[in-house]
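Appendix B. Chain record.
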Amino acid sequence: MIHCVSAVLNPDELAAIQSRLASTPFVDGASTAGWSAREVKRNLQVTTGTPEYEQIARIVREAFMRSGELQAALLPAAATPVLFNRYGQGMEYGPHVDTPVMGSMTSAIRSDIAITLFLSDPRSYDGGELTVFMNGIGSQFKLEAGAAIAYPANTLHHVTPVTRGVRDAAIIWVQSQIRDPAQREILWDLENAKHVTFKREGKSPTFDLISKSRANLIRMWAEI
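Structure tokens predicted for this chain:
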């Protein structure tokens, strides 16, 4: 599944990140790519570990944690540190698949889902669309600043060349409690069915049965 969620960041958070990015040092993004991805990765990324990085990373982490839709759809068990990247004119990230396991031996996670949080006004740059290939079909995404897209990390995807302006984004990879994407989709459908039923009937016997089924499927499938 692909989830697009608007306004993950509120205007104050977005403005704070944009302001700090204006004076934060960037390095060559190829430094964190695998040996083959380095051939097609041409972007910049924020140096981690600095006070400026920690400030903006904390804003993104808190926004991700409070997003009810992302939490319910992804059922995260763990996440990578936030990565901030920048694409200036002529920069792109060619087709690639994300590294399946990220981190060190003591903090490794399986990258089930990638999240791109858009930080630049889409009208301020040309190109820079995130293209995700599923079932042989590529879909392009260029969301409003503050919106996020979550998509399967096992897909081929790329960022098209930026031809004008600058595209900034934050990236997080998530390990889900539910490894199987088909199972996650069933649980997401049931979550939506709960909300529709509650809106129509309140806490009815039907609502309780849907809630029970979703909870018990999580118990059956969860890897924690």
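Further analysis of this model is presented in Appendix C.
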